[in-house]
Amino acid sequence: MRTKIGIAILLATGILGVVGAVGRTNSAPQAPTAPPAPQPLVVHEWGTFTNFSGSDGIQLDFRPLIENELPPFVYDRSWHGSGPFSKRQRVARQRMETPITYFYSDHPRQLDVRVDFPQGLLTEFYPPAIKMTPRYAGEQEALKDSSLTWKISLQPEADDAAREALPKVSAEDHYGFARETDATLLKAVDSFGIEYVEKFLFYRGLGNFSLPLRLEALPDRRFRVVNDGPDPIAGLFLVMIDEQGLHFCAHASVAAHSTLEAVVPDETAASEELGDRMAHALVAAGLFEKEADAMVHTWQSSWFSEPGARLFYLVPRRLTDEIIPLHIEPAPDQMVRVLVGRMETLTPETAESLLAVVRGMGTCSSPDVEPLRSELDRLGRFADPALAYLRAHADDEGMRATLARLQR
Q1: pLDDT at residue 2 above 70?
Q2: Dist CA 208 CA 144 (whole Å)
Q3: Which of its termini does the chain have fewer beta carbons within 10 Å around, N or C?
Q4: DSSP line for 216-241
Q5: Beta 258-263 vs 326-329: how paired, if at all?
Q6: What's the pLDDT at 6?
Q7: Bond prior to 167 in cis (omega within 30° of 0)
Q8: Crossing angle, helix 372-379 and helix 348-361, to 10 degrees?
């Protein structure tokens, strides 16, 4: 009897064990899953270089002149939003305009950021940097060995209060277009420990370096693009704006150490078409769509409205890193830098028209008297180098003296 009871107990135990095992198999907790890996730190930047050349393609120094298109909260080298520092009398070969640096992160980060400008001077910036070199020394500062350093913290979960801390800009302000992206909000601290909120780092400057591309203007809307550098250059747009409207032609690239011949058509085009095609080229170079749109909207009134002839192209990344090295610690997982070169040129027709006006006015030539005033106003900040170009190519000493007197 005990034997039968023992067998029964063993059988029951075995069955229950099997049932239990089956139960444990079905209800066993899943192996713990690893927390989702943090998304990479992504940094994107866009900006422009602007220069001016005569019809022969030789780049000329010019005065930037434009100072009032920035909001008043932007700092200059004197550390004032509207301080005594002025670029109006500074002459340079290159104007570096609006490099905008965006950061993308899914969690808070602390970053040290420094931009160097070995062949130029960084003139405006926002938010305030924690360090600026060289220290401000008045109007005669050399255009070399400049840098800005920021300490920033990324705020991916910024609340409404943090967003409300963004400095206010009007709906028509070009600076505000740069905020129309999905970039992570950031806070920067200055040397006094004061915090500033923005969606990007902004800086600009003046330099005396040369770029490897030359633009020669020939008669009848013909141009010669000469690439003297070791890199192929992509995304070329030749644009002319005259009394009839906007004209342009596009070319995919010009190879290293080669020449491209181009003709701008007589037919006019809509600025929206040109803007869309330029935005597409910027996206192909690595920018997000909203960033490309922000860049085009920022410069639309200048790129597509100012009278004259100009070439836009994508500066090779190697050259961008050489001209304005950008250092970020910890290093980002991805960094895209897309700078657009803008080359203004004096066409033979414009040069002859200006020279004819000066000849016609004779000894009464004055930059404040019509019709010369209108001619110079149309050239804007490039009027001075245009006069310098005509002076260098004038046939007689009298005309050279007149053109020298007209230079502002």
Answers
A1: no
A2: 8
A3: N
A4: EEETTTEEEEEE-SSS-EEEEEEEEE
A5: unpaired
A6: 43
A7: no
A8: 150
